Amino acid sequence: MISYSFPGKVVLVTGSSRGIGAGVLSAFARAGATCVLHYWNDPDGANKKDAEALAAELRALPNAPTVHTLDADVRDAKQVEALMAQVKELCGGLDVLVNNAGIIRDRTLKKMTLDEWHAVIQTNLDGVFHCCKYGTEILRDGGRVVNVASVAGMVGFHGQTNYAAAKAGVIGLTRVLAKELARRQITANAVAPGVVQTPMLGEIKPEVMAEYLKQIPIGRLGKPDDIANAVLFLASEESGYITGQVLPVTGGWV
Predict the structure, then answer these.
(1) Residue 194 burial by Cβ neighbours in a 10 Å radius (0-12, 13-18, 19+)
(2) What's the chain's average pLDDT?
(3) Number of domains forming the structure of the chain
(4) Is residue 254 part of a domain?
(5) Which residues are marked as active site?
(6) What is the CATH number of the domain that holds 144?
(7) Predicted confidence (pLDDT) per residue in 55-85, tens digit
(8) Helical axes 114-121 vs 161-181, angle rounded to 10°
(9) Structural domain contains residue 96
């Protein structure tokens, strides 16, 4: 079993109050990193509640890591700029930036509303741009950027024009960012999860899910830990000569 260690490293995972983001942040916490748990403070307060619960759980770990909980709407550039200023003030800088925050609003192109298109593009693509733009300003030389894309951005699925377009955009952004940051020895890579067991799956119809499962050679859905393992590798010292790449974590689907 490979065991990664991140003592003295500061890690920010966007959208880490639940789902894949929570799994990734928890893995970094167990590996000794100082963690910034980011969430969007939604009107009903559900994300904040989840963030506080996860932070309490992580702070109760043996050799408890430092966990900061910060909120920002990644769609808003000014809020992201303020978020990074807070990270700089609290932690002195950043070593690993994981852009995970995302939503789905699935519907066929014919039925998709403009609001559904813009909501996904603004969160899943604009949000990554904002976090990369302002996050790399406080990212230390030799740092890591890992963007959470999706197999949807590589293949394209029925009813996901908005999601597939956003995730394909994240892949393109990652490849350019890798070249632009290379002089600072910062790597930029993406992971492309397949279908992962998270609350977001509740928005996918059971019959569609059954069809997805048939196409996964390994015979099961992914788990947040599966994605976390890939992210930690790309954030580690061992991956220092890997940049501008997309790592599918799909159970063999792609």
Answers:
(1) buried
(2) 95
(3) 1
(4) no
(5) 163
(6) 3.40.50.720
(7) 999 999 998 899 999 999 999 999 999 999 9
(8) 20
(9) yes
